Amino acid sequence: MDHSYGAWQEVLAEEFFGRQHAGHPTLFYVDDDVEQELRHGYGMDESLPRSVGRFLRSGTAEPYGALEDYRWRRWQQDKDGVPAFLPLLACSVMAASRMVNDRNHRATAYHARFSELLTGDERQLGSHHYEPVSRMWKVLASWQYSQKGARGLCTIPAPADLPSNRSMIGFAQSQALLSGADRSLIPRFFRSLREYGTTWPLPGERLLAQIEIRGMEQHFSKGFRNALQEGEFRPFLAKLIGNYAASWDGSDELVPTGATRAELLVRLDAGRLSWVARLRSAEQKKRIELKDGVVLEQLGDTAYYEVTGLPAPSADTLSKGIRRDGDGLVLSCPSSSILVLARDDVLGVWAGTDGFRTGEAHVVLAAPTAQRDVQRLLDKAATTGRSADTSKLVWVPQGWSMHKPVTFDDAVSLRRALQEVQGAVGLLQPPAQFKLRLEGGLKLAPSLDAHLYLRGGEPQVVLPDVTEGTGTLLIDGEERPELRKAIVAGRPVPLALLRLDPGRHTVNYVGGEIGFATTDQAVIEPKATKICGFAVVDGKASESPSLLVEQTLPTGITGADCTSATPQDAAAVMELCRRDADEVLFAAADGRLWTLEAPEQPDWWTERLPDTPAPLRFEADFHGIGGWLLERRSGRWKGHPVNPGTPKPRSAGNPRAWARAVVNAQQASVEPSWAAYVQAAKELDR
Q1: What's the pTM?
Q2: Tens digit of pLDDT for each residue in 377-387?
Q3: Which of 97, 255, 307, 582 has its CA 20 to 30 A from that of 399?
């Protein structure tokens, strides 16, 4: 891939999935005007469609193969980064933004526009080529959900939310429904509704009806107006604008540029409701001060903050909402007539959640205006908690009803019920599951394997939401009857019940596959925060060790090979080497090769022993290592065995250098042991 494609990837990642979108719904909206603004604003040399089009393999069964390979290489370098196919997906949204009736195409002719945009020919890329693109949208959505809102709240629909005839192109179309100008109109529209004291948030269908009643649709983009009139796509448009209403905190902008949003959540602990803030930003300060004496104190090393200086959660504060501003930060809680609490794994107590979680217990609090809608939902889909709790608890907001514990065992039934029930409760959709994934379990040594678990602590597998049926769950290619009752789309299925043998395992469900491994034990390598070694300057190592800094670490000498070392009290073999030899080598049995140099005669030698001639030999000690000592004098080699053993030159060192030295000295001895060394060297040198 050339520089332009990678540059467009970085531009789109920052513009649409940067950390400035933390806690806010994000739309990946790109049309021709947006593409030109980005090109000129970031100084891009090449247009987005041309940058993508040049790497298509037109005329083949896999035209997007090069782009998928590029994404895979980038993923291996940064597994948490934005999936590296944003330029292609941006082009798919541009094609959706062009879907209007013209002289050449009907408004529904998506693939012709997509092909023409990338290849200049409307017939090059057909619907049968598009499946990889729709799969990329699912991967992008799964990645955004995995970031837990730090890169923006996902607006990509679940497959079950799309019309059957838009099952592939609907992902791109969903991002082209609301332009930037549309989103700038929405806060003013919301504010006009709130001025009349309307219960908030309103469901999406009622918001669309209000737009039509007030004649405001003329102020929105053509794509929005077309979706408003289209029976199949209108439900998704209603859900999209409803989700914006649920996250609107009363500000004039949905995403304040450059401002970080801290979400204000309700916490239930020891029979008392209180506030806790969640900051999705990568920068976590210990203490944050806002206007009106509001202070946030970080709870340990988490993304949560204790909040002081705000009125306690009550019927009044929950229905009106709260907003406080600080230096580059907004603390807000949108007004709502429904409060849903679930157990928070980090806080260890009940805390507010964005939506229902399948298979988990909830506490549901509802204002008088929402109690009828809540009861209808629970009657349709809840497994437990359908009846309201009539006990008079002091922490329940005045006039509000309470249901606990509320559980939903079937994500598909819950989604269907939420679509049927009108009211704010319809906005509490469970997080979409786009693909098969693992969660929980007891992981071992992630540095060895990201999916390595302790035997008996296998993870749970979360099944994706599917449009039809439940499929067959296969573990290592077999259906397991003991899991049959637990197989529900969107709900975790525990694998620890199977008592799997140690080793690698695969899970298959509705065309998806994921693997993991189990073991009874694993060696966990410690991570060194400070590294000591010998810095290398101009090719020469320093005489003494030191802490290596970032600049010297790549070239520094660290560590030691102690695999063949013996205890210090082990007997050493001492050999005498001639000082007048032209070259002295030691060829170890494991493939290592040393050059032995005669030590310099110390100064005190001639001072104390002036009449003693210099010795002809010097000593060499060998600790726990075997091989042959080789000496070259007058062009002839002579060898002497030092616990030679069996030569295995492939196991360590530099086998090629070892082989060349042994072959050059093959006349050094006639002993069978040396002949074995020569034979091993010749085999390596072939």
Answers
A1: 0.64
A2: 999 999 999 99
A3: 307
